[in-house]
Every structure is written in structure tokens, then in C-alpha cells.
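Lab notebook: predicted structure, single chain.

Context: the supervisor wants predicted structures on file for every construct in the current expression panel, including those that have not yet been purified. This is the next one on the list. No modifications to the sequence; it matches the entry in the shared construct table.
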Amino acid sequence: MQVAHLPVEILRQPVPLSITESWQKHNTLDEVIEIEFTVRQAAPEAISEINHDDFISCVRRRGQFVLTSSYDGTVRVQIVGETAPIFTLTLDEQPKVVEWIKIGTSEAEDSMFITGGFGQVARLWVWNVAKASVECVAACRGHKETILSLSSSTTIAGCNVNLFASSSFDSTIKVWSASPEETDLSEETGGISHKRKSENKIPVRIPRLTLAGHRNMVSRVCWLADVASTPKLISCSWDQSIRLWDVGVGAGDQVVAPKCGEARCIMVGSPLHDLSASPNGILVAASDNKVRRYDLRAKDALAQIGFQGHNSWLTAVAWAPHRPDQFITGSVDKVVKLWDARRVSAPLYDLMGHRDMITSVDWAPPHDNKHYILSASADGTAKIYHYPT
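Prediction complete. Output recorded below exactly as produced.
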């Protein structure tokens, strides 16, 4: 072992001050710097694919079930992550849109969904899991052009109103009963239930309410819960407007009030293809490749414009159900983008793989602590991505 011998002069020098003592001696104050950051997350990973023989027009999820519609004339239900459909429903017309009404909590409880499309009729279907049967219980007639979107009031948490809304190329929005029983024909038809032999005696249902005000096709309508817990409808159109509608329905009321109508109109300045509503704001997808975010609680409802990353029309948008600051968009440019609402300059991730325009996007709620992003395309596929969170 070697021993170092230091000069006596060095050993007699004072011990250096600590950092704290040095700050105190020189009257140096702490300066606190706040840094905001976002933890980087793993990229979404494609885990499965749903295939149709033609253009897939819509994809919707409820629980672990995925509902798709295609121009090949079929509607399919499939479980997230599985390759084979539970069933395929063949229609006499090309379906444009689908929407879930409810999912049974057990095999003894029926599930319900709606289809609509080029036949101008919204059809209400009951899926009996125990019997492995699907039956059309109502043909909802009233639109004069293609049905472009459907929305169920059951998408509002805690809302017991059993209604659904439809929007159409005919520039109108209609509100219908979503009950499988025939309960909404008495006033219009004198209590007579109309049935068409050509539809195997499927009851024909009429709308409870028609909302007119848009001057071009209504590309999207959805239910919106306001602070008073009174459901409203919000819609967007190719007439470049967003409209808020008071339909006069209470949280536990099945009756639509006669004095209903437009409560607010916001002009955007570009044709609109889709919207997504949540307590975090209204997102709209426009033809100018931009996403706009509105806060309807503000008097002027100024738009937060940004999120410019697509190279063509935006066709679809959807808020994340589990992250109030994230959403996805789809475009004619074949790409799905994942965004953070606090970061307008660039998306978090680009989800590639589709060979044609994106027609619809949605999120699957957590199943086994996993989250999923869904996208449908004109290439005949719907992709399911696992999103680690």
C-alpha cells in the first residue's frame, strides 16, 4: 500500500464551503424553473384486421364488440382481437353507417344496433346471443336521401333516454325511438301499426322529430350532455356550420317536446365531414385538412385551429374515451394520426397501413386493461391497433 504525504501548507488550508454555505455567503437565491413535459408512450401496434369484399364505410365499438358496415352489402360483428366474425348480416341495400344501441350484459339479455344507408331507411336490429339470431324489429322511414350518420342517446353516461338520431344527405336530422316495442305510431297513424309485406311484416316506424336548418348534407350528428344534464344534439354539415339543437328531452323522459329547434349556429368556413363531442370540447374534421376544437361553454366559441399534418381532406375524428387530451383523425391521405390536444404542431404518431382513404375511426374502451384504436378504409379493411397506456 502506498501512502501519500501532503505538504503541511495544504493541510492547514480551510475546508471549502458547501454549496448551501456558498449561496448564503454570496446572498444567492434559489431560482425555481417549472418544466412541463409529456411522457413518451409506446406507439400503437396493429394486432388484427377485419376484411370485407368492398369499401368499409363505418366502424363502431361497444365494449369488446366491433360493428362494421360495407358497400358489399354486409354488416359484421366481431370481438376485438379475434380474426373471425361472430356473425355476418347480409342486407338488400348498401349500408353507409352503423351504431350500437346497447350490449347485453349476459347471454340472456339482447343487444341492439342500427344500420342506415343508401336505402334511406334506418333499421333497428335485435341480436339474441343465446339463440344466435339477429332480427330487424323496425324500419324507420322518413329521410329522402342517403343516411349519413347515426347516434344513440345511450352514448351519454347515465342517460336513460332510449332514442337515436340520424342525419342525411337531405339536410335534415331525425329523432327516433330506439325501443324494440312499437310505441311511437299512435299520434301519426291513429293507433294503426303499419307493416310492409315486402319486408316480411317489419313494423314501419316514423320519426318523433325532424330538425331542419342545415342547407347542405348533414355529415354527422351526435348526442351531447350539457352541464344541466339535459341531452342535446350537435351536428356538422357541408354548409360549413356546426349547429347545436335543443330536442327537449330530459334525462329520464322518453317524450320529445314539440317546441324544439336550433339553439346555436357556428360558421366554420369549410365543409365539415365529422365531429366528436366530449366535455373537453367539440372536434370537427374539415375539407381544408385542419382540425378545429371548440369550447361551447364560451360565448364566442372561438376555434383552436391547428393539428395540421394530413395532406388531404379530413374524413373522421374521435376523442379518446380514457385520455381527455388525446384524439385520432383519419383522412383521404390513407393515414390515421394520434394527437395530443396540448400539442398542435405535430401528431404523436402516424398509423400507416391502409391502401385507400380512411372512412371512419373509433376507440375501443379498455378490455383486460388494454386500449384499442379502430380505423376503417375504402380498401376493404378495418384495422385494430393496441395502444399501450
